[in-house]
Amino acid sequence: MMNFLPIIYDDEILFSVISRYKQMCGMVSKQALEEDLFNQRRNMNTSVLFPQEINTLVQNFPPNSQVTVREVIINQTLYPFYTAFLSEQRSEEIYRGMAKGHGKGFVNLLGIAGSKIKTNDLLKFCPSCLHDDMEHLGESYWRRLHQIPGALYCIKHQVSLRNSKIIITDSRVDFYCADEDVCPDQNEENIYPPIIQDLNLTYIRNASFLLSENQKRKDLTFIINFYIDQLREKGFASKVGSVYIKELLEAFVQFYPSQYLELMQSSIDVDKETNWVRLFIRNNNKNRSPLRHLLFMQFLGIDVKELFEVETVTGKQTIQHERAPHLELDKKRKEWLKLIQDNLGASRSKLKNIGKALHTWLYVNDRPWYDKVTPIEIVKRKRKESIDWEKRDNECLLLANKAVEMLMKKEGKPIRIIPSNIRRVIGVRRWFHHKKLVKTGKYLKEITEDLESYRIRKINWAIDELKQQEGSITVYKIQLYAGFGGSNRESKQLIEKVLIKVDLLKENQ
Ligand SMILES: [Zn+2]
Fold it and tell me: Which of 83, 243, 431, 457 could disulfide-pair with 91, CB 3.0 to 4.6 Å?
């Protein structure tokens, strides 16, 4: 039984409360203390961050104490952080382990034994918190938020956390208060670049939400589906939810500097099949560190709160067509059949062009039906058909006309009017120059812009553009703007010629 219970400070870890009790009582022997608190000499692992047998401890609190087992686990341990992304059931199992005692396998239960994310070897502290505490409380204490894996900063003072001398990975560790003896004044300034500070402060804010506010739990499947939804929304997954892994990985390593990923024990090799991001979004039952959940969500620009507030998720959609409401499905099917009827003989790609939105919808939501009813391209038979060349010539001429019109109207730097550019606008290949397309061929020949005309057009455009800007219009500026390069004598002369012409025109107006 304890004689009294020290005031428990905000966000104080249980180890710290016990350490202060020990100091206040002037107890020297750790064994005697543990007998008082846990009714036994515990040479089994007394974990600083993951204490067990809290039931016994709370029973040994002084009779007037109001503190419950639940309060100790929720407020004085890292339980809320480490179980945040585990199922309700698993969280409860861990909770029971902490309350009743689970023994040596407890770290396995938590999922941190085999985890790539190691806890810090030493307790961490913030020098400013230490200083403030000493001033206001006359003592200091160990804070939970500082012990979170990946926490590099104190959120309150925005200074980097320091290592104390207290080794927590040693199970024989004694109880030490946070004071100047074990928290050396290292006088280092903030040792990380500003971008890392920003990233890490966001990380800690999210971690703090898990630690101090969140009580909700979601199953892993729900979480993965939530990720798929978010990836889809951000363009990293298709409508049905297959992830564009290459793009995703590239964006990820662009978002996080490699130094930061290293500090967070989460470096990735984009090319490696087994890099953690790849494995992370797969629906396997592997344990995922809360640190990586937070990293991943931060990358997606999601506040961790969102995950716990969302009620429904979609995830991958394997049986899509069953999800579409029947009325809408019927309507779309009818529309598509009519479109096929109205364009008999049209290829798939042509039908797609005619009814783009409809095509996309059916392709995604009703693929088997789409495949059944939509004619397959029969290229060979088409070629054998006799072709009405005159009709085709007229059609092509019209297309070419339109394309030229579009090219001339196009904003930005002028594009030269030549057959290849015209073909590009229409989206046709070289068959466009078939010798039987007489009128089209003639038109293409006539309309082709010679180099000098094209250059003059570019110069005129550059002059117009430069007029919109401040400063004088010089030959050199026009040269650069039109993309001629600065040392081309021929183009220089041409520009001068155009300038004179423009000025003359002005005088005449
Ligand atoms: Zn601080």
Answer: 83
Ligand 1 centroid to residue 198 C-alpha, Å: 16
Whether 203 is in a domain gets the answer no
3-class secondary-structure state, position 375: coil
Sequence-ordered list of residues with C-beta below 8 angstroms from that of 393, at least 6 positions apart, any chain: 436, 437, 438, 439, 440
Structure pTM?
Answer: 0.63
Q: What is the pLDDT of residues 201-252, one digit of tens each?
A: 999 999 999 999 998 999 999 999 999 999 999 999 998 888 999 999 999 9
Quick check: is 193 in a domain? no
Question: Where in the sequence is the domain holding 502, given as residue range(s)?
Answer: 455-508
339, 361, 384 — which closes off a domain? 384
Between the CA of 126 and the centroid of ligand 1 the distance, in Å, is: 5
C-alpha 503 to ligand 1 mean position (Å): 70
Q: How far does residue 75's CA lie from ligand 1's centre (Å)? A: 19
Write the DSSP assignment of 432-467 as a string of letters.
GG-TT-HHHHHHHHHHPPPHHHHHHHHHHHHHHHHH
Residues 150 and 267 in one domain: no
Kind of pairing between the strands at 162-167 and 122-125: antiparallel
Distance 196 CA to ligand 1 centre (A): 18
CA of 66 to the centre of ligand 1 (A): 29
> Do 480 and 412 sit in the same domain of this protein?
no
Residues 397 and 361 in one domain: no
State the Cα–Cα distance between residues 2 and 21, nearest whole angstrom.
Answer: 9
**Distances, alpha carbon 489 to alpha carbons 209, 314, 483, 500, 502, in Å:** 67, 64, 14, 17, 20
If you measure from the C-alpha of residue 25 to the centroid of ligand 1, how many angstroms do you get, rounded to a whole number? 28
Same domain, 162 and 17: yes
Report CA(130)–ligand 1 centroid distance (Å). Answer: 7
CA of 187 to the centre of ligand 1 (A): 14
373 vs 152 pLDDT, higher one: 152
* Residue 370 domain-assigned (yes or no): yes
Which of the two residues, 108 and 178, has the higher pLDDT score?
A: 178
Q: Residue 160 Cα, ligand 1 centroid: separation in angstroms?
A: 9
Taking residues 169-174, report their average pLDDT.
75
Bridge partner list, 153:
160
**pLDDT tens digits for range 97-109:** 999 887 777 777 7
Residue 43 pLDDT class (50, 70, 90 cuts): low
* CA torsion through residues 474, 475, 478, 479, sign: negative
**398 shares a domain with 380:** no
Partners of 243 in the β-ladder: 237
Q: Give the Å distance between the CA of 229 and the centre of ligand 1.
A: 37
Separation of CA 26 and ligand 1 centre (Å): 28
Name the more confident of 253 and 486: 253
pLDDT tens by residue, 55-75: 999 999 998 899 999 999 999
